[in-house]
Design brief:
5-stranded parallel sheet, alpha/beta, Two-component system response regulator, 11 strands, Rossmann fold
Amino acid sequence: MPLKILVVDDAAFIRDMVKKQLRQSLPGAEILDAIDGRRAMSVLRKGPIDLVLSDWEMPEMSGEELLRWMRSDDQCAKTPFVMITSRGDRAHVVKAVEAGVNDYLGKPFKPDELMAKVYKQLKRAGKMPSAAEQKSAEKSRGVAFGSVEALTGGKASSRPKAQKASIAASNPLLAKAPSNSNKNGSGQGASKKSPAKKSATQKGKHEARANLRFPNGESPCVVRELSLQAMSGFMQRTEAIPALFDQAVADIEMEEGSLARVNGYFSVLEAGENNVNTRIIKFTVRFVDNDPDKFEVLSKYIARYFR
């Protein structure tokens, strides 16, 4: 009987990406999907599933609610459950552990990180195909980021830590946006002395900032345009540069120090200035979340500062 793996996420982009990687790495496995916990319940009731990979924050029924239901159901009580989430704080993970999660993977993630989690759970359950045994050894050790053990007393995470506010404040990009001296459109930042129409971030003298996380690193950024569909702005060029269509998690700084955390992907990446040595990258991240609760707070913020 072929392996059956259920992928649960309200973002079609994430579901499709995970399913593609699973099919490439586990040929012959049956990959099912659901857009929220309630629909996942319907799939689980139809027959046994070998592994569930689920988002945590979803409309209708969250990942936590789905997990608690599974652990109370005789058929699903022992089904391995890997939480996939953009929230990696210790308190959040401990809560998931208490609900019965087997492991967790932080967004954004690399394909090898995803498969390391999958192989680990299949091996524990004695269901990993022999053809995948060698692949599991490639990255199954050393993927500290996203492990339950790392956040509940095990070894420290190898993923770069989140940028501190002091670091963001000292970043030259955040201190001064690129000028608009280039007339052919390569420099998109608006000069403070320009009589041109004020940008959205100047409304109410508010400068929006965010921290962008992507598979091979993270970077603070200045937000120039923000809607419920996408976010555009400038980030500093470093050794770790995202690629087009890479996953992204945008931690947008709200009022009173709170954060709006939104999942997406890079749909635009270009030089911020017409210079091969420019230190500025212009980006657009298109959001993929479909959670009304998540966007309610963000919509109020947008209405106040970006309209």
